[in-house]
Design goal:
By secondary structure, this protein is of the alpha+beta class. It has five helices and six strands, in the order αββαββββααα. It has a single domain, classed as Aminoglycoside phosphotransferase (APH), C-terminal lobe (Aminoglycoside 3'-phosphotransferase, Chain: A, domain 2), CATH 3.90.1200. Helix content is 32%, strand content 12%. This is Aminoglycoside phosphotransferase domain-containing protein.
Length: 156
């Protein structure tokens, strides 16, 4: 795989300023929507939330629900995303995937897991990242509803 060189730096740990910038980016992602769920490339959903088999191709909110509900313990209840807006989710936000440019810009790397999914999945994916980073980002980004927060907790 070949990619362009991006002049900048990775920062870890991130300051409050950097966390606020990321929170703004995640808020912006909410404004990018789609009518069909699934990966950006249209193929299988891959990454931390999905199976390693690369054979799960998602095209609807119902399929997202079925996938997670088939893996929850019986006492955990069920996730319900419908009706949910499908928003752009990166699904691998981590300090290692962020380049901070000298001019103040931000470049997010590693879009292999990205797609259009219910928003709680973005926050569920943070569960697999370094604790301090994810906790700071959770606190900086507001959930629009208590329901979103509950669905994210079930997935984690």
């Amino acid at each position: 795989m070949v990619s362009d060189f991006i002049p900048g730096k990775t920062i870890d740990p991130l300051s409050d300023f950097h966390i606020q910038r990321l929170a703004g980016i995640l808020e912006y992602f909410r404004s990018i929507t789609a009518d069909r769920a699934g990966s950006l490339c249209g193929g299988p959903s891959i990454g931390l939330l999905w199976p390693d088999t690369n054979d799960l191709t998602i095209s609807s909110v119902q399929q997202v629900e079925e996938w997670f509900n088939s893996r929850l313990f019986p006492g955990d209840g069920k996730v319900h995303f419908d009706p949910s807006q499908l928003v752009l989710c990166h699904l691998d936000i981590a300090p290692r995937n962020i380049i901070w440019l000298d001019d103040g810009g931000v470049c997010l790397l590693d879009w292999a897991s990205a797609g259009f999914y219910p928003r709680p999945l973005e926050f569920a994916s943070l569960f697999f990242q370094e604790y301090d980073f994810s906790e700071m980002l959770f606190n900086a980004v507001s959930f629009r509803s208590e329901r979103d927060k509950e669905e994210q907790q079930k997935i984690c």
